[in-house]
Amino acid sequence: MATRGKSRKRREMDRERTAEVRRKLEERAEDRSSEDRGKKRRTQRKSRTRRKCSEEEEGRREEHRGRAEHGEHAVRKKRQEHSGGAEHKENAVRKRSGTQRKSRARRKCGEEEEKRTQRRSRARRKCCEEEEGKKRRTQRKSRTQRKCGEEEEGRREEHRGRAEHEENAVRKKRRTQEKSRTCSKWATEKEQKTEEDGYQREEQKAKGNGQREDSRGTKKVGGESRRQKFRRQR
């Protein structure tokens, strides 16, 4: 029974909450519709005011147009009445107006010509500045290229100097080697010649003493040849 009472109470609370939410939604919808109605009324009021203003403006224009036509008729009538002096005055006014118009046109042409001259001057000055900038860039490039060329030439000269130095060193080494070979050759030849001279002296000496020859035609001195003895003595 207690549980059933709680369920009924909960359902009543849910119904009250639902009714409250529905009432708030209805109030919000009513406020929105009233705002829309107010906006519509304001828009209609603005339209009526604008239409009324345009009608009043049109009326003023019509009135002004009527006055202008009336004034024009009056002026025409007055001119017709006083045609002589009026025509003269009108011609004078027209002439003065034409002169003023020409002066204005001439002044305007002069101003436009001045503006064109200034534009041309600015364009010419800009062109000269661009040409000067191009010339400076070209000179800078030329200096850079010349500097690079000089550095490259310096490197080549240095490389050439190293190559010449190495070539001179190789030549010097070759000459030294040739001199060494020549000196050693001369020393060998001198040694051989000295040996041959000694041998010939010994041979002459042996011939002078009348010593016997061995089977090979070489004189024997104490069981050894004269050449061997000469070498031993040396």
From TrEMBL:
Residues 1-234 are annotated as: Disordered. This is Uncharacterized protein. It comes from Pleurodeles waltl (Iberian ribbed newt). Residues 11-38, 52-74, 81-93, 147-170, 177-227 have a biased composition (Basic and acidic residues). Residues 1-10, 39-51, 94-107, 135-146 have a biased composition (Basic residues).
